[in-house]
């Protein structure tokens, strides 16, 4: 399939602090690229560079063959959608109100918004209780809501920053299945994740970042425990 996203010799960071150094990588449609590495390696910065929320010092980012700048990226249906790490839902609203806000953010027409709400409901399940305040939900329930709001979008590129955060073992299995379904339907996904064993079970390729540079790019089956230990601690 075609290349969905490329980082070409990207240098990026915050203010005068350079976090990424000459990073080049790509992900194709129908492919799940896992990004792993030690804390502070630049994994989140790699995703933020695509949406323009960090400073680009060098290089370029190309989406579907078109060079983009952060202020012109196409969000929502048919474009790019990102799940940020951590606080990513409106806690003072109900679940239904969060769905409504997301539907109007990501969908252009009324028909698209109806279909979007149906997809979110299918992911959340009947036990969600749409009138519950998000503030009353557990951390895992909030993450399930955030992930459902993200994966229900008909995007061609998903940027997911620690999607398994706070989820139970069963919740992680469901989340990985949802992500894999989006990829198998033709989308590309770049997933930053600390649960290494879980994400390697569904990834097509793995990129290991270390100190802002690419240490290794490999197939999951090639990443032995010795390789992982070396890249984390050497």
Which structural class matches the secondary elements?
alpha/beta
Query: Which shape, going by the Cα principal axes?
Result: globular
Mean pLDDT: 91
Counting DSSP E segments of at least 2 residues, the number of strands comes to 10
Sheet of most strands = 6 strands, mixed
Helical element count? 7
SSE map:
Layout: E1 3-14, E2 17-28, E3 32-36, H1 43-51, E4 55-63, E5 66-68, E6 80-83, H2 95-106, H3 110-124, H4 139-151, E7 157-161, H5 169-184, E8 188-192, H6 196-200, E9 205-210, E10 213-218, H7 225-233
Parallel strand pairs: 3-8, 3-9, 6-7, 7-8
Antiparallel strand pairs: 1-2, 1-4, 4-5, 9-10
Helix pairs in contact: 2-3, 3-4, 4-5
Q: Summed up, what is this model?
A:
This protein is an alpha/beta fold and 234 residues long.
Describe the structure.
With 234 residues, the protein is of the alpha/beta class. Helix content is 34%, strand content 29%. A six-stranded mixed sheet has the order 6-7-8-3-9-10, with helices on both faces. Strand 7, helix 5 and strand 8 form a beta-alpha-beta unit. The radius of gyration is 17 Å and the shape is globular. The mean pLDDT is 91.
